[in-house]
Amino acid sequence: MAAEQPKPQTRKPVLLSKIEAFQDIVTTAVIIPKEDGVISVSEDRTIRVWLKRDSGQYWPSVYQTMSNSCTCMSFNPETRWLSVGMDTGGISVMHLTQWSLCVCVCVCVVLSAHQGRVLVVLFVLEMEWVLSTGQDKNFTWHCSESGQQLGTYRTAACVSGLQFDVETRHAFVGDQSGQVTILKVEQDSCSMVTTFKGHTGNVTALCWDPGQRVLFSGSSDNSIIMWDIGGRKGTAIELQGHNDKVQGLCFASHTRQLISCSSDGSIVIWNMDVTRQETPEWLDSDSCQKCEQPFFWNFKQMWDSKKIGLRQHHCRKCGQAVCGKCSSKRSTIPLMGFEFEVRVCDSCHESITEEDRAPTASFHDSKHSIVHIHYEATTGNLLTSGTDKVIKVRVPQFSHYSALVLPSIRNH
Ligand SMILES: [Zn+2]
Ligand SMILES: [Zn+2]
Fold first, then answer.
1. The FYVE-type domain covers which part of the protein (predicted)?
2. Tens digit of pLDDT for each residue in 219-272?
3. Is residue 3 situated within a structural domain?
4. Are 191 and 297 in the same domain?
5. In this structure, which residues have their CB less than 5 angstroms from ion ligand 2?
6. How far is the CA of 310 from the centre of ligand 1 (A)?
7. Count of domains forming the chain
8. 320 CA distance to ligand 2 centroid (A)?
């Protein structure tokens, strides 16, 4: 296999600034690219705008207290429209005017969108739509100008991942049952197109790359799946690099890197500029597909050959059903998404070269559980907010680098 070396990898993200002073968790924060600012919404009921001063520190410029906790936010930097979801089900659509000396927030429309906490809000400028999902298991869309509700769709479970493709008007809705539903949204109606099933836990985050037409889904099952819609072959690639729930996903399209974070505080930067492979289906067999010894439920063969039945395992590379003895070795298989060492059969272990083992992701520890992540492409900065109630702005430092420390063996 031809190895594309050197691979663009990432150094440890450098911490630029910290923003503290929150009484509670910041549920969403985004970088304002041109003004070098940050907008935050928090469970502590505040909407704040922070602008960077000459000292390099962010200072509060706007401090607006709402009547309830702010659960989510969507900001459009070109128009400065800000939509904030509340835990009582409302969405405030507001406009931020005048940056430099004085910033003011004008609440323009309040949408009564949901019966409970708003989980995700998404402002779509091209359609003048505010899409949202709530604890009431409804996906709704409103006109951002008039505030009128245009339509609603009942989802199977609560939705914590929502993305929209402007070109085809498809909404991607990831829910707590683990599935992603694709909806075709019209002005006042919507219809279900298909569902993607691949996760064994809640879908916690979605990220859509309209350029490559690829959808990433993150889950509480610790995995990320890349659904290649543009490729039209039904390819779904798994990425296994987290030891805890995936909480947020961002795609840096200019470097083709996926940034993911999880509740154990780890940030993983994936090189998506490599040809990745799908993981094989696990094969069924009554005996080891290498040494032919029976598995423990195969009483007939155990009796005939006077052998004790063995436990079944599966090689992650070829998918064959093998016994423990024939799969005693472990390896990473980065191009199959296994950045941790996994069980492989002896023959697959021999076939994996050092080049094949070159990592395609880098791992960083932010020390605190991350609840939200935002990558801003024009500044190249990465923002995280965590359970420590602190916003951190980092530079991921894209460069050629490959000396990475891998986490130890996970489960098998
Ligand atoms: Zn065997
Ligand atoms: Zn194998």
1. 282-353
2. 999 999 999 998 888 889 999 999 999 999 999 988 899 999 999 999 999 999
3. no
4. no
5. 315, 317-318, 345, 348
6. 9
7. 2
8. 6
CA of 351 to the centre of ligand 2 (A): 9
What is the whole-number distance in angstroms between the Cα of residue 317 and the centre of ligand 1? 16
The DSSP bridge pattern shows strands 159-165 and 149-154 to be unpaired
Same domain, 242 and 274: yes
Domain containing residue 314: CATH number:
3.30.40.10
pLDDT band at 300 (very low <50, low <70, confident <90, very high): confident
Q: Which of 94, 96, 46 is nearest to 71 (CA)?
A: 46
Same domain, 65 and 202: yes
At 305, which helix (H) or strand (E)? helix 299-305
How many Å from the N-terminal Cα to the C-terminal Cα in the chain? 26
Tokens of 90: 């409302």
Q: Which ligand has its closest atom nearest to the C-alpha of 290?
A: 1
Q: Which ligand is nearest to the CA of 288?
A: 1
* Ligand 1: centre distance to CA 296 (Å): 12
Do 184 and 268 lie in one domain? The reply is yes
Please state the rounded mean pLDDT for residues 35-64: 89
Task: Say how far apart CA 104 and CA 121 lie, in whole Å.
Answer: 22
Q: Does residue 271 sit in the same domain as residue 294? A: no
Report residue 45 as tokens. Answer: 């009921």
Q: pTM for this structure?
A: 0.87
**Residues 158-185 pLDDT 10s:** 999 999 999 999 999 999 999 999 999 9
Q: Identify whether residues 148 and 159 lie together within a single domain.
A: yes
Q: Point out the ligand nearest to the CA of residue 313.
A: 1
Kindly state whether residue 407 falls inside one of the protein's structural domains: no
Instruction: State yes or no: pLDDT of 394 exceeds 60.
Output: yes
Residue 397 three-state SS? coil
Distance CA 348, CA 345 (A): 5
> In Å, how far are 39, 49, 66, 238, 254 from 221, measured between CA atoms?
30, 34, 34, 12, 29
